[in-house]
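Justification of resources, computational component.

The compute hours requested in this renewal are based largely on the per-chain cost of generating structure records like the one below. Each record pairs the submitted sequence with a full structure-token output. That output is archived, and it is also reused by downstream analysis tasks.
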Amino acid sequence: QVQLVESGGGLVQAGGSLRLSCAASGRSISSYSMAWFRQVPGKEREFVAASSWSSGSTYYADSVKGRFTISRDNAKNTVYLQMNSLKPEDTAVYSCAGRRGGYAYNSNYYDSWGQGTQVTVSS
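The structure output for this chain reads:
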């Protein structure tokens, strides 16, 4: 497993932007598919975005497509989530996740997780 630590969350007004970072240690993420999930209390964890280790392709939930961008810097062992045009419904705890091999939409397939970072979007 790889150890993951998120940062960059905070409070922002609707329409604003935030950039989340996920710093990995212990292993190189170059062979890991990486993803961001989010969760609101009382609701299930929701897929946000993923980056495939092999092709570099990216995948997004429909709710964030066109507003969020996932990227990775394998040299820095870090994954990012650029969030633009934020909406109050984007408020959640955002967690970074990793898995060896292909990406997945289901959080159960990821075995490395960060502790999460709170993102709050005010209206």
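The longest strand covers residues 92-100. The two ends are 38 Å apart (CA to CA).
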